[in-house]
Each structure stands twice: as C-alpha cells, then as structure tokens.
Records
---
Amino acid sequence: MMNSLRGNVLYGQSGGPTAVINASAFGLIQEALKHHDLIPEIYAMKYGIKGALNGDLICINDQDDADLVKLPSTPGAAFGSVRYKLKDFAVDDTDFCHLLAVLIQYNIRFFFLNGGNDSMDTCDKIDRYLKQKGYRCQVIGIPKTIDNDLPVTDHSPGYGSAAKYIANTMMEIVCDTISYPKSKVAIVEIMGRHTGWLTASSHIATHNGSGPDLIYLPEISFDFEQFLADVKRIYTEKNRCVIAVSEGVSDCEGHFLGLSSRARDDFGHAMLGGVAHTLADLVSAKLGYETRPMELGLVQRCASHLQSKVDLKEAMLVGKVALRRALAGDSGVMICIKREQNRPYKSSYFTHPFADIANGETKIPRTMINASGNGLNDSFLDYVLPLVQGEVKPKYKDGVVGFCHIK
Amino acid sequence: MMNSLRGNVLYGQSGGPTAVINASAFGLIQEALKHHDLIPEIYAMKYGIKGALNGDLICINDQDDADLVKLPSTPGAAFGSVRYKLKDFAVDDTDFCHLLAVLIQYNIRFFFLNGGNDSMDTCDKIDRYLKQKGYRCQVIGIPKTIDNDLPVTDHSPGYGSAAKYIANTMMEIVCDTISYPKSKVAIVEIMGRHTGWLTASSHIATHNGSGPDLIYLPEISFDFEQFLADVKRIYTEKNRCVIAVSEGVSDCEGHFLGLSSRARDDFGHAMLGGVAHTLADLVSAKLGYETRPMELGLVQRCASHLQSKVDLKEAMLVGKVALRRALAGDSGVMICIKREQNRPYKSSYFTHPFADIANGETKIPRTMINASGNGLNDSFLDYVLPLVQGEVKPKYKDGVVGFCHIK
C-alpha cells in the first residue's frame, strides 16, 4: 500500500566498510531516481550519522552518472562512515534535536542507514525519537557487515565477498606455504570479534583441497592443551600445519587471547589483534616448530577486486528494496534476507523491527562446527557456498579497478 | 641451428613463488610435449634443486592433462621449491656428483631452473660443472621474481602480477582508510629487501587517484626528520596520510629499519619485518597521531586470483622460449625480456650468460624517483603500466580459483 508521503531521501553509511556497501547505495539511488515525483532530492550523509547531525550532506543529484555507475565496484564507504553511538534521547537529546533540524531543513522523509548492529541501534533510537516528535519520516535499516553477525536475516551483504576473498587468499597462502619441503606452521589471523563467520569461510579452501588444517572460532572456548596436541598431530602427519584463527578467540574464562593494550574503539569495543603472534609464540616455545604468524588485515573488508556475484547482487537489492519499503510506508525496520532454497540458490527479502536486531548477535550454530571444535562441517558448507558464487568483472583503468570519486 | 641432442627434460622451481611461476612451467611443458621425438620424458624436481640432488623427480608425462591446464592459475610453486645454495664445486663437489648421477640415470639433457639471482648462481655452477665433466646438457635459466631485481632483463615474470595486486590492494586500503572523518596514519609494509620495485608499484594507485601519499624505497637512504616532516605536512593538509614502505628501507648508515632478531633465511639473507611498526611507533611518539601499521604479507607473491594478463603471457613465453633455446643448443644462459615498445606494449626475448645475472641486482633508477625521494614519477609509470595491463579470468570452483594438484 503506497502512502502519500513525499520528500527527500537521506542515506548514510555506518561502521566498517565492506566490499559491497557502495553497491547498496547504488541500488537505493537507482530506485530513488525512478521516483522523482515522490523524491525530488537524494542526499547522502558525509561521514555517516555525524554528517546528518552537522547538516553535512552530499547531494546525489549533483553527481556525475559516470561516477555513480562505478559505485558497485568502489571499496570503502564512498560517502564516508563513522563509528558514533547516539545517547538515549530520554537522557540527552542534543544530537536528536540537531538531527531533526537537519531533516526539517532538507525535507527528509526517507531515512536510511547502511550498517550493522550498532547502526540498527542508532536507527531504532532515531525512529522512536521522530515518532515521539510527530515528524513523519520512514526510517529503514540496510544490512551491511562482513562479520555476518546480524540476527533475523539469513546472512548480511558484505559477508559473501569477504568470505570469497578469505577462501581464495587462504588457498593461495596454503599453496605458497606447502611449496617448501619443511614448511613453517602458518597461523593466519582473521577478523571477527565475537563470531567466527569470516574465519570459518577459510573452510571453503579446505573443502577445495588447499585450506587450513585447523580453524579456531570465538564460538568455541580455546583449549591450549588441545590446540598444541592438534598442531603436533597435524605437523607430524603432514609435515605442514596451516591454522586459521579468529581475532576474537577466548579461553575458558572468556579472556581474549589477542587482547591488546590499545583499549577500545569509538563504539567502546575492545580492540583486538595479535592472537596469531600469541599462538606462534606458544607453538614455538612448546613444540619447537618454526612459525609464520600473519594477519589478513584490512583488505578482508574492502577487496572490491574480488566480489562475490551473489553478494553484489543482494547488496544492490537490499538498497532497492529498502527504498521501495520506505515508499510503501514501512519504518522502524531493517531489510532482511530469507534463503528460499539452496540448489539453485534463491533468496527473498522481508522486514523486521530494529530492536531485536540491534541487541542480537548471530553466532555460528554448534551444528555447523565439527565435533572437535577445530573445523567446520558440511552443514556450514551448505550455508556458505551459495554466498560466494560467481565472479564480477569490474572495469580496470591502468591495471586498477575503477572506483567512484564522490564530489 | 637445431643441435642433435636428444634426451629428457628436467625442470625445477627455486626461491619464493610468484603468481605466475607455474605458468612458466606450463609454457615449457607445452613446448616440450611438441618435441616428443627429441624429448621422450619431462621431469620436474620435487622441491627444487633438492629434488634433483636426491633423485626425487616428478614425471610430468604421468600427470593428468586436466590438472596441468590449471597450472597457469595455480599459486605457490606447484612442484615444490627450496632455498638451497650450492657450494663452489672446486671446494666441495659432493652435491654436484649426486646431481650428475641423477642426470645420467634419467638421461637428462635439458636442464631448467626457474628462479631469481640465487637460482642463476646455481645454474651457473651446474653449467660449468657439467661442461668440465664433459656431460652434454643444456642448462637454461628461466627468470622469476616478484622483486624484479634481476639484471639484464627489462623486467621479470612475476613482477607484473605482484605489482597489480599491490596497486589494487593499496587502492582498496586507501579507500577504506579515508572512509572515516579522522583517519589514522596508515603505514603499509611491502616486500623488497634491497629494491623497491614492489613498493613503487603502489604509485599506480596514487596515479589513479587513490594511493599512498608517501612511498619509501630501499634505493633512498631513510631520513627520519624528513619523514616526520612529510607525514606532518600531509596529515595537516589532507587529514589523512597513507604510507607505503619497503621492508628493506635503511638509514644513512645502511642499517635496516625493520631488522628483526629472527636472523637469516636459508640463503643467508637477513630476515626483515616490522618496519611499519617501527615507523608507526615513531609517528605516534613524535607527532601524536593515531597509526595503523600493517604488512601486506605473503599474498603479494601468490595472488593468482589477480594476475596481470601481460605478466601471465610473458611467464608462459619465457618457459616456451627456454625450451626452444635449449633445443637450439644454448646453455649457460637465462632468458631475458627486451621491451621493444610501450604503446602498444611489445616485448621480445634474448639470452644472456648466467654470471652477470647471478651477481647483479637492478635497483630502481634515481630518474624514476621524485626529487624528494618519497614517491615515484611519470618515468616509473611509463615503465610499470604496460606490465600490469589486462585481467585474467581464472576458472573458479565453489568460489575458489581452480588450482593444480601435482601427483
């Protein structure tokens, strides 16, 4: 049922980038441009919610089409992002007052935030505040996270591409490592604070015959003795041992193995890092093997040169669907993905209220992890394989993927 | 002039892998298979020269064609590699006696080693030894190095793909880094002990509008004061600063900035690492900026998912040309690439004696580096751009690039 609301769009990006976050922006923009009668202007927040609070908006209608078409292959957050947590407006409504003034000034009636759990918390607060103030504005969340930890949705855009990058990179690291007669114990640290979805995706490489021998996830409490026994057994048997480990693995008391002294990020989360080095020191001290600790690093979340086609398509579609749902009168909800079937893979879209999503976190179910807790099983493969299918052929200029420069 | 030598081929891989070393193997094998009358059997050394010394050979004729065709997209050294330096045979000929016995046993008359400077030193010794012993065997070197430091040849197979990977990855890291309003000073450590060709390739990203602001190479003695002044100026001006630095940069006294305590590799080279962290600590202490040090890591040398088409083609051709030159009676030489023209890019192949190559090292000429010594200029772009052109579409299975398993 189409409501009669007419006004402008405000779209923002939040939290860490993914390889396809700008594809969601592109999907939303393309759809909004089709409804020029209802949406005269499309704005993007410069540096996420901070831009919305400061009235620092980018007018999409002023951008060159030749630039906008490059959005789907552009890494990073093309409009800028931020990690900024809104206070409870019952306690301090300063930010909310600023935001409302900007929404009124630009006649924003359709508000979108493209992010993860924290962003959905922001959306939830804004939606409730605007309703309380009687300002009509449809607030819709567009899912985005490499971590794949958003609840309710089957998976999140950004995960499939990160998983594809990690699977290929691990395959390459393993092929490289086993090139030598006496290979070092390679320990690869992969992103993921509380959930192991990213690290688990390295199992795709194992399934294809060249992946890690052992995979350690935050979902399974880390057992040092068992770890050393695993490494010794594999190394003795195969003369190699490649380990994938989540940055967020923790011991039986819940202490992070890789907790650094760098304290906390702007959302208040502990900053992790160094678990590969911690484990390398352990292997070296207790087993005497040579080790090669490494971190996959930033590129995991922004490898636009290796997007999953399925992920790219879904990222564009969640943007498109978000715009349509807003026009249809929805507010206070995030777009979720439903897996309809696996062979061939088909998905559909539905909406769900922010509150459940903001406060939830989906971990890898125990049923997808092997009995020993040091690897994945076929149930995980059934889940992940459809999401990494298909390759995208981005346009290159001078050997580099073409990306979009927002004015 | 075709000589009348008839016998078997022995091919080996040496040193660190590249994204296209197996393409050279493929080129050589394809060509050798065409000459079955002269070459009844094709062997590969298992784990490089060590396999040749131990008689541990892989028979290529026994491999499945379906596997062999995947060689060009296979990362790592598909037949195994090793870092092993042969002694001077005038002092100790033990290894050489073993090798000669294996060559006689398998009737090897065409001997190829695919590697860098150290491998050409090995080839040189073997060629001279065999000539002294009167054993007729054509010894040919096939160039391979991501470092691009081999003299005489215009460039080396492996460099173009590594450069393409680094350029794209740096573009992605920069897009990611500038996604935030207040970005950290990102310091990216790139491989390269004595030459900065790999680090320099990040300038392709800068040229395309999203690359490092500052590039530090081993060719230029590192000046700490100038570095801090550069970082401060850029950060003040742009509110960002992305730095690419070679692992092998050294100060005015020639001391490596990133010298680790891990001593030496099997060739006796100092093991480097940590220069990004050294510089990050410096920036943090002296300028008070937040930093993000990172290492590009292993994937630089094995990213088969992002090969340069030009590099892949040349890698196959050096293998093919090596076989032809051996059949034509050449020995004691490496195949070199001559750049015939840049627009459109054309190259040809010639041979050059090992001795000059084994003991030489090509650094980036000062004329390709900017006046301040903290970046590259258009002369470098003219050199590098042709080498990173074109994309390859490898076949994927379950989201992962198909690679070859040698039996």
---
Amino acid sequence: MNGRLTVNFFELIAKDDTTAARAGILHTDHGDVETPIFMPVGTQGTVKTLSPDELLENSVQIILANTYHLYLRPGDDLIREFGGLHRFTSWPRPILTDSGGYQVFSLADLRKLSPDGVRFQSHLDGSHHIFTPEKVIEIERNLGADVMMVLDECTPYPCSFEYAQQSNQLTLEWAERCREHFEKVANPHGYRQFLFGIVQGSTYPEVRQVSLNQLIKLDFDGYAIGGLAVGEPKESMLEISKFCAEQLPKDKPHYLMGVGKPEDLVDAIALGIDMFDCVIPTRNGRNGTVFTWQGRLVIKNAIYRDDPRPIDEQCDCYACRKFSRAYIRHLFQAGEILAPRLATLHNIHFYMELVHRAREAILESRYPEFANDFYRQYHLENKDSVLTA
Amino acid sequence: MNGRLTVNFFELIAKDDTTAARAGILHTDHGDVETPIFMPVGTQGTVKTLSPDELLENSVQIILANTYHLYLRPGDDLIREFGGLHRFTSWPRPILTDSGGYQVFSLADLRKLSPDGVRFQSHLDGSHHIFTPEKVIEIERNLGADVMMVLDECTPYPCSFEYAQQSNQLTLEWAERCREHFEKVANPHGYRQFLFGIVQGSTYPEVRQVSLNQLIKLDFDGYAIGGLAVGEPKESMLEISKFCAEQLPKDKPHYLMGVGKPEDLVDAIALGIDMFDCVIPTRNGRNGTVFTWQGRLVIKNAIYRDDPRPIDEQCDCYACRKFSRAYIRHLFQAGEILAPRLATLHNIHFYMELVHRAREAILESRYPEFANDFYRQYHLENKDSVLTA
C-alpha cells in the first residue's frame, strides 16, 4: 500500500492463551510502537501542559493530534512548510491524526452534511470550510502523521437503527474515496504514512457487520472502532468492541477510539484491541484527579492537606519522586500551573505503565492474572459509562 | 549573629575597577549563591509555570517566596511541619522570604496600621489577621528561608516628605523589634537563617539617610533597598540606589527589591547592587513577551507566524534548542500551557545568563565594556519607568 514496503507496518508478536489479547509492534519511519499502546491526546500539537521531553521521559511512544484543530490553527499549509508535525512540534516519535470528523460534529457551528462532505463554520472565527474525504486526506498528508484516519461520521448515542444505517453508508462511501485519494496524493515529507479505516454502526451489530465487510475489502493498514465512548453503557462498548475485534484482520492493528478509563483499557485489551486514545489522563489531571494502582484520587480534597505521601507510593514518575500530596494539593488550591503539570505527568506515566504491564503479561501469556491483579487492587468508585473524548 | 558562624555569610570576591560593581558569594546552608544574582519570584512556593528541576537546569541559585501568601495558604504551620519550604517545595537551593509587608499593603483588604503592626483581612477569604514584627519573624522562621526580611512599610510613589518620614520611623521601630525577636526565636529546622534590614525613605535622600544610619547600627546580615520600583522615574530609582549602595557596609550584600528590567539590572549592578528580584521575566513570559540580547520580543505577534528561528539564536535554553517562534506563537494563540512554560523558561534562562555575564565581567574588571556591549545590542523600545513587582 505504500512506497517503501521493506518493513511491514504491523508485526504481531504474541497472543495471550486464554483471552484475545495481543502484543505487537507498529513499525513507522519515526520509530516502533509496542502494542497494546495508549496514545496521549495532543489536540493542538501539544499534549496539554507537557513538553515533548516529558513525554519521552515517561515512555510515550505515539501521540494523537487533531486534524480539525490544526487545519484551522495554525493551518496545515504552515505545518507542511515546517516539514510536518514532528518537526513543527519537536516530537520525534510517531503521530496519529484523526480525520477531524468528530470535531466537526462536536465543535463546529452550522454543520451541513452532504454526500460530498461536510460544510461547517470554524468555532474560532466563524469562517466557512468544507471537509471532503479528499480534502481531509490532503490535510493529513500535509500534517504528516504516521497514521492517518479516514473521514467518517461518528454517530451520537443513542441513535436510531435507520440513522445508524444511513450514516454508515455515507461513512463507507467516504472511506472508499479516502482510500483512493490516499493512493493519488503522495506524502510531501517523504516518509511512510499509513491509513486506517473506521468501523461505524453505533450499537447495532447488523450495521457494524456491513461496515466491517466493506472496510476489510478496502484493505486498510489498520482498523479503528469508532462511534463508541460516546455515552453508551460500558457493556455495549465492550460487546461491540468484541464483535468488531473478532472479525478484524489479525494481521492489522485494532484501534478503539476515545477509550478510556484504566479499567476500560484492561477490559478492551482482553478483546484484542491494540491501540487507545483518550483525554481522560490529561483532562482529569488538569482538574486534579489522579490515577493510582489503588484507584482514582481527587488530589484537591481537604483530606490531602497534610498528606506527606506521593500521589502513588508505587510510582517513580517525577511528580511522585519529588512531591507530596500536600504540596500538589496546595498548588491546585493556589491555581498554580505546576499543579496540572504534575497531575498530568503522573497520569500519563500511569497509563503508559498500565499498557506496558499489560504487554508484559501478554508476552508471558498471563493476561487474566494481570487483569485480576489490577481489579483486586484498583478501587472502582462508580460504574459510570466511559467518558467521551 | 547566628549560631554557626564557621563560614561568613557574605564573601566579597572582586570589585570592578571603574564602577562600584561587585562580585561575591552568599554562603548558606543550602549552598552558595554567586552575586550579582537575580532571584526568580516563587510567590506561592513555585516559580510560576516551572518545576524545581527546570530552575536547576537553568542555573537558578536562589528563589524568593512570599510570606504573606504562604502564611495565608497553605499556612506556615503546615510548612513548618513539612520541614520548611525547601522540603515542602522540593527546591534544594537557597530561598529568601519577603516580610509580607508589601503584599499586605497591595493585596489585603481593610488594612489598619498601628505602631504595633498591621491588621488586615485576607484577600482570599476575608479572614482577619495581624502582622507584627515579632509575628513575621516567627512566620519566616517556620517557613525556613535562608534569608528573611524585616517587616516594613513600602511607601507608595509619590508620597509626601512628611509621610515618608513618619512611615520611616515606624519601619525603623519595626526593624529593631524584628532584629531583637530574631535573636530570641530559633530556627525550628536547625540550619542558619540570615536577616536583612530594608532601607526606606521614598525618593528623599534625607529620609534615606536616617534609615541608613539606624539600620547599619542594628548590624543586619544584609541590606535591602526598598520603596523603589513602585512607579518612580528610572533616574530616581538609580539615584536613590546609588545614594544607598554607597553608604551600605561593603562587607554585607546589597539587595535592590523589585527590580527589574534587564537594563535596570545592568545599571544597578554598576552601582554596587548584589541581589535582585522581579516578576518581569515570569509575568512577561506568561503574557508572551520574551527577552533576547537584541531586546524584547512579543512572541504572539503575527510577524512570527511562520518564523522558523528560535526565540533567541544565541540562547541554548530548552525552548530555544527545540522550538521555533512560529510554534511558540501557535501555542500562545491556542491558549496552551506549554506556551507560558517555554516563554518563562527562556526568560529565566536569559536573566540568569545576564547576571552570570555581569559577574564574569566584574571578575575580569571590564564591567563598563560589558554594559556598553549590552546596550549596543539591546534595543530599548521605550523609556517606561521600571515595572513594579
């Protein structure tokens, strides 16, 4: 599918004996990514509050950036001129860009959907724009991410069977047009880019099946499961993920978009998911919620006023090596920027450690024990549905 | 003046031949500080946007923290319990605390000044408090800074001769009470703390003279020149600084409070000032103004939209090694926290490099050449009076 096929993109390394969990490697021209992997969200070309060096120090292997945001500001033309996102942002490792579809439907004003594409007004300045499948491919080529996503409509939850079906037809047409245009337009930056299809169909297995059949025929480099983590019950999320993951090609990476909480990752990895992205570790961190192996902790709470312990005594991130809960709480109370920095840093470290431990468990074929150990320690405060990205 | 006098606090190393510029060392139990020095402001126990490690990486030797803020939140009792500010904040090098007087007069509500001290209401929650000279010494002992400042009234500019005189009398009485109480109350943390007197007297040499005579008699570990950088013309600031610096003991450090712009530091060092603090590098950084050897630069301006150069091509800070003006401008436009982080980091690096180069010039007795070189390169956009802290 790409010019330089000397190294296959996805390499499957191991499979757990009793679950569908897989360990693999994504080979990109910006380095390898060990799966299962979590991708921190860097919407506007920066993972909020963190520097690229901090991401590297905390074993981040690939980040996600948002096509919609970067197209509007600073513009994909400018980023192309700077040699692509890696050079512009000084992030040397792989990047994945979404297609912008999700943001057009959640952020932009006055959207108008047509078979050709979607017209919208910028949420920043009201300017008029259109995203067609072809346009989005060109933008993503300019941005230069290692992994590009096709333009799709992410259906809201709940949505009717009819809506899911119709929307899926459009998404499939767009996927085909993206696939074709991807072949026509080269990467201006020279290195390899890969294109993922996105399975839609809401919570309807029949619609998901149509999506799967058609997308698999188009032979993408990888497959995402979209339209989940949008408010549906966790059971539906896992059920649909399982339904899709079982049918997706085994030799291609499987990416569950917008998921999720630590426990969601543990569950979805068991179903054969290889890649995740979610704003939870960064957004929650900025709001003062941090993750530990014992569960979530709201560091701003008064009970931490004089707590000399680190966020997590088992953690060796910079925040935990250097600072007490009392100091971090003080920083949040005082509105200091170091507060969201330290909480985000810790959360990203925690997520990377979580997928790393999951991978180790898969390589040793003891994923169920790993998941049981995780659940035994991890205190679930509530049974909320997975937060949306 | 202190228990362990095995090492003198201030050591004068060199004097420039043609100016009054001096190079010295402050010996503290948290390490040495090479003067002339700039002290970044860490009001609430953090230099805004930066981590302690970033301060260390950028050669910061001593930071300032605000007694008023830390007394109100999280409380000097809590910080004492944690072993003092160094341990609480994870900053291993020296710290100076102001007396809180300046903030009481600029931030607190319903201030009531009496010979005993100053009553005020917290700007945070309206709670009632009183700062007496004795109380402030006890708070600063609890905070555990290496250098403590006496309680004073920083006169506003302009103020009448009579007001300056009266205020100065009160400030001198307070200085004496601080000096006495400092001897009575030990440091709960064990290590040495030093106490500085603060010369007041507004822009009136006669009043400054009274202040100088009295404070020198009290034999403080160091002397600050207060009541400047509050809106007076730069000429007055330099004139009064010169008047004071010439009469201050040569074997004690001289600290010009709240100053200032890079050019102010260059000028005041020539008058014999050893220590500076100011919010300019941090506050301006957060607002998108950065300092270069060619002058100030407003990085948010549209002309930097596609500028591939670093902030300063002569600078080797992390921001300049890794990022373009275009990217940093984008981060400011997008409201990303990495923007104020990088701009602040660069500015602190610039200020530390400035005082380092000044010190080198003094050691080689070529301070006038250094100052001329600085002014030849540095573009002064306007002749504003020095910004207040």
